[in-house]
Amino acid sequence: MIRKHLNLTTVSTALAAAILLGGCYRGKPSSKPPLHVVPNMDAQPKYKAQDKADFFQNGSAMRVPPKHTIPRGYLRADTIYFTGKKANGEWVEKNPEKITMDLLQRGRERYTIYCAVCHDDAGYGKGMITKRSPDLMPVSYHTNVLRQQADGYLFDIITNGSLSKLMGPYKHQVGVRDRWAIVAYVRALQRSQHAAAKDVPLDKN
Amino acid sequence: MVFGGIGTVALAWYYGSPRFIEVGYRPEQPVPYSHKLHVGELGLDCRYCHVSVELSHEANIPPTQTCMNCHAAIKPNSEKLQLVRDSFENNTPIAWVRVHKLPDYAYFNHSVHIKAGVGCASCHGNVGEMDTVEVKAPLSMGWCLECHRDPQQHIRPKSEITNMTWEPPPNQAELVKDVMDTLNPPQDCFACHR
Question: What is the fold of A79-196?
Fold first, then answer.
C-alpha cells in the first residue's frame, strides 16, 4: 500500500521500537532528573527545609536567630538541665532526669544509634570505627576515674565533645533529654561491668 | 488508526507513569558518599545522620559536623573528602543533590510514619546496598494510597524501623492486630494536600 504521508500507526510503532530497543525500561537508573512533561505546581516558588536561597547572602533558606536574641521557648534558664553545671560552675553530680526503666530503655536505644559506633555496646571503647583508624581510641567507661565522674561532666562531653577533640560535639544530633538518658544508660553499663555478687537479683542467682 | 491511537495512549501510560519517570533517578552527588559502606558494612543507623526523621516532617541531610565526627581522624587526607573538609573549615554547606522529591503541593510528614511503624526501607528501598542513593519507589499518590488503604503488611515493630532487610513474618496479621486498631491512615485529600 502506498502511503502518501506518515500516519499515527507508523509513527507510534517506530517510536515504540526506538524506545524499547534503546533500553528505556522501568527503573533503569539514570542520573538525569525526572522529566515532568506537565509541570503543574510541582515546583512552587517557596522555600522548603534545607533549600538553597539566592535571596540571602549565605545562600541558606533556613535562617539562624539574630545574635543576642532568644526565640520563644528557648530561654533554657535551667542551666543544670541544659548544661550539666550548677550555679557555682561545678558539674551536677546526679542526673536531673528521674531514672525510670523507660529512660534507661530510651538511653540504650539512643546509645546504640549514636555511641556504640565508637564506644561499642558494652562501653569498652572498641567500637567498629576504631578498627578504621589508629587515632580513634575512645576511653573505656569502666575505669575508676569515669565511674566517679559527675553525671554533668558526662553530659557535657556528649554535648560539646571531648577535651581532646577526638569526639565531636553531639548536641546537633542528640536532644537534651536524650543526652541525660544516655548518661543514665552509661551509668548502668558501668554498673554492669563493676558489679559484686550481691548485686545480682535474688531470682537470678 | 484506532490501533495507532491506542498504541500512543499505551506508550504514554507506561512511560508517563511515576513508576517509569521517578524510579531509577540516581543523581551524582558532590561527595561520593556511599550508604553501602557506611550503613551496609559499618552498620551506622539511619538516625545517626538523619536525626530529624523521628521529630519532623523532614528527614534532614546531616550537617558537616556529623561527617567530621569520624572523618577528622578517619581518612583525614582523602581526596574524596576534600569538599567535606572545605565545608567544615569555611562554614559553608555541601551542595547535596536532592533525590526523593515530592511535588510541592503534597505535604509529607516523616515523623508520623515512623511513629506508625513504617520502616525506612519500605519507601526508600534497601539503602544499605546503594553506593549512590537511587529512587526505588514511585512515591506517587496511587502508590501511597496502596499502603494507606491496607497498611497491614508494611507495619513493623519500632525496633525494626531502620532494619533494611526486615520482611513481615507469616503471622503478621496477628502481630499487628492491636496496632491496626489505633492506626488510621488518612485517605482524604486534606491529609496531604494541605
Answer: Cytochrome Bc1 Complex; Chain D, domain 2 (1.10.760)
